[in-house]
């Protein structure tokens, strides 16, 4: 078998089709103090390939933060609003809008957000997009609504990367999808395993580990051009890439000197430098939000635990103390919360810790491979059920849970992408 047949690369992303089924989202639980909001059908939205109001409604509903009130009508952004009527129907906010097809083939989406309590307009937005980006226009509106009503930035217009594997068919795909599991695209396809995808901070590249050369090697893939390059191919295992916040470096786990240890390397493969030094295994490194600290897993104290050290190396401090098996550290974008997987009571559970107080919260069971949303409000993870691995999402307070399932394959190794510019 030739190397070319081992890995099929795209010139850019391959658009999703029926061969790569969209994921289905199920929502369980709600956030505290849900905000009642009415979302009217947008005027003339039938001309667009995507129903804008339905996507906005689904985004807000799966966040768990909103109670959706059926508007039962079509209202454009120019419609006269009877605030008392909507307030009497229990809506604290109202979303209205319209869609127009422009002469150049693009679709212009207009929207307004009204506060029925203060009887005023809270926000408005006008976007013109090509047909294939109309779903993105809807996600951006949902983000605007989320931010105006909760005070936190929405993450609906972001993307996720994950591995879709069918071991029996030796089919491994690195896939990219919208945060709601729709619009699936294939970035890399191989008949050898692909693991550990990690987004660049600007959302244009993904680092990952491929076994196409019969050993783990770290690559960086440009999602715009489809071009890719080997970043680290040292003797032994090359694994667990994670980007620095400024996008210039990767922290990786290499076994080139014997035991697996943590290294830092430029994204062009230059300046490889070892930063951890123990007689055990140091792996799964992750930069902190400010790039000054690296969190990692080490068995230097016996069983695996989470440690942290300066990004320049030096002495390490232990972070986890409860339980004898703690792995897969991830840090929120604001640097306040650590998520990780702990083996307790015979299974693997997802935990979150407030790094200031050290207080822990058990968020989900049967969980591996966590990844924070860029706003730090949700964590995506892999979970097993019904003999298949799929993805799930839980809010950092544990109140809201989503499950993303697909008809075929095992979906795992999720990595939630950054906010897009």
From TrEMBL:
- Identify the species of origin: Massilia violaceinigra
What name does UniProt use for this protein?
Tol-Pal system protein TolB
Q: Which gene encodes it?
A: tolB
**Annotated transmembrane regions:** none
Top-level taxonomy: Bacteria, Pseudomonadati, Pseudomonadota, Betaproteobacteria, Burkholderiales
Q: What's a GO biological-process term for it? A: cell division
Endpoints of the signal sequence? 1-21
Q: What does this protein do?
A: Part of the Tol-Pal system, which plays a role in outer membrane invagination during cell division and is important for maintaining outer membrane integrity.
Ranges for domain TolB N-terminal come to 24-122
Q: Which UniProt keywords apply?
A: Cell cycle, Cell division, Periplasm, Signal
Q: Say if the entry is tagged with keyword Cell cycle.
A: yes
Record localization: Periplasm
Q: What's one GO-annotated cellular component?
A: periplasmic space
């Amino acid at each position: 078998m030739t190397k070319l047949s081992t890995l099929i690369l795209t010139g850019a992303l391959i658009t999703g089709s029926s061969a790569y089924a969209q994921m289905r989202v199920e929502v369980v639980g709600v956030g505290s103090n849900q905000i009642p909001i009415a979302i009217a059908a947008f005027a003339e939205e039938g001309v667009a390939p995507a129903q804008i109001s339905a996507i906005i409604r689904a985004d807000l509903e799966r966040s768990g933060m909103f109670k959706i009130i059926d508007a039962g009508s079509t209202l454009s952004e120019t419609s006269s609003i009877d605030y008392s009527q909507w307030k009497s129907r229990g809506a604290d906010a109202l979303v209205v809008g319209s869609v127009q097809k422009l002469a150049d083939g693009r679709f212009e989406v207009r929207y307004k957000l009204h506060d029925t309590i203060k009887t005023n307009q809270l926000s408005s937005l006008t976007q013109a997009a090509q047909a294939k980006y109309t779903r993105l226009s809807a996600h951006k509106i949902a983000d605007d609504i989320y931010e105006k009503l909760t005070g936190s930035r929405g993450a609906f217009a972001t993307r996720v990367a994950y591995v879709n594997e069918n071991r029996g068919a030796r089919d491994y795909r690195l896939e990219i999808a919208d945060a709601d599991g729709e619009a699936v695209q294939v970035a890399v396809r191989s008949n050898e395993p692909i693991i550990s995808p990690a987004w660049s901070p600007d959302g244009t590249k993904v680092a990952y580990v491929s076994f196409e050369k019969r050993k783990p090697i770290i690559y960086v893939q440009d999602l715009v051009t489809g071009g890719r390059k080997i970043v680290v191919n040292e003797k032994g295992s090359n694994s667990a890439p994670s980007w620095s916040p400024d996008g210039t470096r990767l922290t990786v786990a290499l076994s080139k000197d014997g035991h697996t240890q943590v290294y830092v390397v430029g994204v062009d493969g230059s300046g490889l430098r070892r930063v951890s030094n123990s007689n055990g295994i140091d792996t799964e490194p992750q930069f902190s939000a400010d790039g000054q600290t690296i969190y990692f897993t080490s068995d230097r104290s016996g069983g695996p635990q989470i440690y942290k050290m300066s990004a320049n190396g030096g002495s390490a401090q232990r972070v986890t103390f409860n339980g004898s098996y703690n792995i897969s550290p991830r840090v929120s974008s604001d640097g306040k919360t650590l998520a990780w997987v702990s083996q307790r009571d015979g299974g693997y559970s997802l935990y979150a810790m407030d790094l200031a107080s050290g207080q822990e919260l058990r968020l989900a069971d049967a969980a591996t491979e966590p990844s924070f949303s860029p706003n730090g409000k949700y964590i995506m993870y892999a979970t097993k059920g019904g003999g298949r691995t799929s993805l799930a999402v839980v809010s950092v307070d544990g109140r809201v849970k989503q499950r993303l399932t697909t008809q075929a394959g095992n979906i795992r190794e999720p990595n939630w992408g950054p906010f897009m510019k």
